[in-house]
Amino acid sequence: MADKPKLAVWKFASCDGCQLSLLDCEDEILAVAGEVEIANFPEASRAVIDGPYDVSLVEGSITTPHDAERIQEVRAQSGLLITIGACATAGGIQALRNYQDVKEMFNVVYASPHYIETLETSSAIADHVKVDFELRGCPVNKMQLVDVLLAHLHGRKPNVSAHSVCLECKERGNVCVMTAHGTPCMGPVTHAGCGAICPAYHRGCYGCFGPMESPNMPALTSWWKGLGVADADIRRACRSFNGYAPAFREESEKYD
Amino acid sequence: MKNETYILERKDFPTLLEELGRRGYRTFGPTVRDQAIVYDELESVDDLPAGWTEEQDGGKYELRRREDDALFGYVIGPDSWKKYLHPPRQKVFSCAAVDGLITIDDPEPEEPPMAFLGMRSCERHAIAVQDGVFLDPGSADPAYARRREQALFIAVNCTNASETCFCTSMNTGPKVDLPVDLNMTECLTPDHHRFTVRAGSNRGAEILEAVPTRPATEAEVAEAERRIDEAAGEMGRTIETSDLKDLLYANLDNPHWEDVGARCLNCANCTMVCPTCFCTTMEDVTDITGKSAERTRRWDSCFTWDFSYMHGGSVRQSSKSRYRQWMTHKLATWQDQFDRLGCIGCGRCITWCPVGIDLTKEVEAIRNSETVEEAHADN
Ligand code: SF4
Ligand code: SF4
After folding, report:
1. Mean pLDDT value across chain B
2. pTM across the whole model
3. Taking CB atoms and an 8 Å cutoff, what residues of chain B touch A188?
């Protein structure tokens, strides 16, 4: 028992969807629990075992001064630090604030804004500490999450590819929604991992897994213009869950 | 063996599919799904795309209604037979550690033989190209060999060509000229709807014996030929092949690669839809205890970083180097490697490139830039 690696799951600014993916692996979770010691995972168990931890899964972005300190503590206690999801890897949907004046928004949203202590931006974990592996997605693909953990346990390479979603569409037999339906799609610039869900239901890719390894944003957006997509819609498409990932952000700024 | 040309009337076409089923074949062929004509398993003649055709151009595909009820009145869709003979994902083996011994299980479950209905001439050539890769005695792929051996080819000659076709440039069509089990041409007028059929193998001849046919008249054979000739005259693209290899080898540093590299998304669609592209990668998975593992082979592409990854990084770092690799392999280095061109002129990479990059135009641009350079040199 003592040899089992200790796993901790940490939450920063996020919706919990990614760590819930781990709980959602009904068939696998019990077996995973047999191979690792779940030392700190408040969503799953109240029992907390002190660090250090062999593996930390970190969900969420850094949005408060307190969290900016806490992530340093997590790093110090962790062997392998794996960030999971768009919030942790790119700042998440809440990074839309980075394009606005945060104080001004508070005054509109909160009755007593002086209680709020926050940073100007929502930022990725890797902007604060060294990250060993980033698992993309909003939310992450639960099978990839299990695969990354198993890969670490067994000393092999995780099966996580950084190429476009298009390869997944073709593997699944999807008809290309952009070519055959004229539907604007983020797939060619988006990191694979979801298994091409949206195009399988005749929707363009929303870019949930963030930019792929070599995103050619201008080539895609100029084609979108040919499809009749308005500048404001190009900006919105680039600025969603991964809107602060550099490639998407830079392209969106051209359409401000 | 019935080796003349016969006539199969449209009303008797269902008997052909029934006969394939009786002989234990799973039949795959064209059908309309998601606004495209794809290949899928056919239950009956009703699944065929009767009355449908398509319009194709760089980055564009549009399903269109025909004025008649032709069953094979389209050209080609996004799929090719590659997805059956060389499937996107294939288990290579699984292994387990039992009592200190490693056992490896048989990766080859028995599959019923497949019949491919509606094979085009260029597609038959594409299979010949992949045969060169997967049936090479030194490195044969047993799973491919088994499926290939069992598969029945029912070709239907093209009687239309699309804007993106250039099989006449590649000497791969539109008339089927490589061995197939049955070779048909659809002939449709307001007065009749029938198919000329010829058997090309004993298997094909047996099937032909079992369906209601009559010998074709000379006029009927001539009508079929005329329709194929019409398709030959409709090619939307051309490519000059005589000097291709030397042209591309002489132009590895042509600034045009930079230009196409800037337009290319590196999305890999061209390689996925290409019926000759064969590259794969391996994925290993382990179970939770680490006591068993499985290796899967899946389609990969020269457009991904991992594909040319060696210790320390990817060999082909830039977009231009990846596009150049793909196109020079198809059109030039393939000739050194396999003694033939790697492209059969189907145009899928043009239609299904999300930004309409067109290899025929890229070759032209390189050829023209060379002429310009020569003109400069002469001056
Ligand atoms: S390179 Fe393009 S035109 Fe040639 S065989 Fe492949 S998909 Fe068809
Ligand atoms: S040529 Fe077209 S289909 Fe091929 S990788 Fe480039 S953008 Fe994608």
Report:
1. 95
2. 0.95
3. 265, 267, 269, 354-355
Domain end (from B199, B232, B265)? B232
Best residue for ligand 1 mutational test, from B125, B133, B343 (most atoms within 8 Å of Cβ): B343
Is B88 within 8 Å of A171 when comparing Cβ atoms? yes
Is residue B349 within 6 Å of ligand 1 at its C-beta? yes
Q: What is the ipTM of this complex?
A: 0.95
What does DSSP assign to residue A148? H
B333 three-state secondary structure: helix
Contact criterion met (CB below 8 Å) for B166 and B237: yes
**Which of B35, B287, B354 minimises the CB distance to A188?**
B354
Q: Is residue A221 included in any domain, yes or no? A: yes
A190 with A135, same domain? no
Same domain, A191 and A148: no
How far is B169 from B190, CA to CA, in rounded Å?
33
Rounded CA separation A21/A143 (Å): 9
Same domain, yes or no: B315 and B359:
yes
Q: How confident is the model at residue B2 (pLDDT cuts 50, 70, 90)?
A: very low
**From B198-207, B307-316, B370-379, the region with the lowest mean pLDDT:** B370-379
Residues A97 and A170 in one domain: no
Residue, of B155 and B288, whose pLDDT is higher: B155
Share of chain A above pLDDT 70, in %: 99
Which residue from B minimizes the CA distance to A165? B267
Residue B218 CA from chain centroid, whole number: 32
